[in-house]
Amino acid sequence: MHKGRLEWYCSRVDPLTMRDLDKGTVPNYSRAHQLLKIQEKGQMPVQQRGHRNNLKKRALDQLRLVKSKPQRSPEQPPRQLWMDPCSDPDMILKPYSLVRPVMVKTPRPVVLSPNCIAPRLIRNLLDLPTSRLDFHVCPAEKLAEGDPSTTHSRPVSRTGPQDWRESGRIRMIREAMEKNKHCLLELGVQSVRDLIKSEIYPIVIHVEVTEKNIRGLRSLLGKVGQRDSEVLKVCRSAEQGLHTLPCSWARVEPHAWSHAEELPKVVRSCIFQEQTRPIWIEEGDD
């Protein structure tokens, strides 16, 4: 509690420099959980909607929490964040999650979103000058097979062929990283959790698709004849899925490119930029 209220006093952290920015208060976990349930029912109080505190405006939008810095005085024990929603059975609504930054020196693998444009976007990315010196593509069919050269020599396991495929995928990705190349994955964002559990932290990049730029992406779509509304629905669903990932991800804004031929260059620049930045991982997901 802060000053007798169900709030935390905290600082907003710059996700790139990891420095403290503006300070303020946010509802503590218990109060935020209650407010989130009210918001889900469409009954958010007017005074909460119009609050001037910038931190509070973000408090009910999956706020990421960073552990506080160690106390300078050894006599003061470090404060712990109480992340239990007070024995409420509704555990689906989680207003806050605890994260930590991870810096990776070796080239991280790349996952592109939405899936409907990823395969052809990867191909166009490889066609750029010198791209094959920086990138290595891991086709979907090879990742699905895993490492067939080793499966014949392995004894039958209770875990079955699924674990063989997973270990084969990880091996292929690590080999690309050892060659100092970014591995372009055709796995989709649903496999990001498995990579993180193996301590592989991918660069996830989402290309935002809107009504204005969807015509320019027609050449990247795998299926022909899809209506704009259908494609937009798929792309928006993909973006919603990104918000459930246990890691940070990057977005290519619509104004960053004007035609499909320019998009691979923008994505390539984004990959190199993200490589120099920390990735934020939820505690307990690696």
Automatic annotation (TrEMBL):
The lineage's top-level taxon is Eukaryota
| GO CC annotation terms, alphabetical | cytoplasm
In residue numbers, the region (Disordered) covers: 65-84, 143-164
Compositionally biased, Polar residues: which spans?
Answer: 148-160
Record GO terms (molecular function)? CARD domain binding
Concerning PANTHER family, the annotation shows: CASPASE RECRUITMENT DOMAIN FAMILY (PTHR14559), CASPASE RECRUITMENT DOMAIN-CONTAINING PROTEIN 10 (PTHR14559:SF12)
This chain's protein is named Uncharacterized protein
Organism phylogeny:
Eukaryota, Metazoa, Chordata, Craniata, Vertebrata
